[in-house]
Amino acid sequence: MRFCASYLPFAIVAGTWSLVSAASWGFNDATITVQSKGAGVGSGLKEKLTQNKPLSQALRLGSSDTLKIILTTQDEKSPKRPHQAFLNLKDSISGLETSFAFAVKESGKGKVELTHKDIPSQLLASSGDLSASLVIASFGSSVPYNKPAFDIKITHDSGQPIASIEEPLRYGKLPEIHHTFKADPKSPPKVISVFFTAVVLAALPVVFLAVS
């Protein structure tokens, strides 16, 4: 017991050190651009994204703008392709969110682009800013990266109508349906039935005589 107890502090320190020194995912060489359709090369907004340091001002994304992010994903500062790399947008008012996957090469070079057409109408109609986060993760012991990167302010052209928001399909109890069935067919009066039966029986001898 004394032997185990003497090594207990060292075990705690070793465990703590292993947690602190665990590899983690991140990114480097990241830039974000917002460029209008038809604008020349080099025009528009261009900012540098830094790990664990979101941009101080929100980026404006108009109806004809394209937002593009280029970065290099890293596993413990070494370029590497993760299993998952997303740009996540969240509406702080409604709590709704959506994700856009990065196209990442084996070298870790990744890119994602989005316009108004890619963003759900519920987020486009939000009156507040959209919070954008970068999510980088993979299998293994490396700690995933999930941190805010910047905010987006959705703007609309004055002559362009805002897309209408469709009510989501909800499953639940529906009003009771009452069916009205047709009445069962009724037989004709017995007098008519007896009359036509007698006519048929009376015509049988004539038929037999004609055949014979």
List keywords for this structure.
single chain, 21% helix, disordered N terminus, five-stranded mixed β-sheet, alpha+beta
Tell me the number of strands: 11
Distance between the termini: 124 Å
Report on the biggest sheet. Answer: 6 strands, antiparallel
**Class based on secondary structure composition and strand pairing:** alpha+beta
Number of helical elements: 3
Could you estimate the helical fraction of the residues in percent?
10-25%
What is the quaternary state of this protein? single chain
> What's the SSE pattern?
HEEEEEEEEEHEEH
Q: Measured on Cα atoms, how large is the radius of gyration?
A: 37 Å
What does this entry look like structurally?
This protein is an alpha+beta fold. Helices cover 21% and strands 34% of the residues. The chain contains three helices and eleven strands; from the N terminus they run αβββββββββαββα. A hairpin with a 5-residue loop joins strand 6 and strand 7 (97-101). It is elongated and about 110 Å long. The model is unreliable at 1-20 (pLDDT under 50).
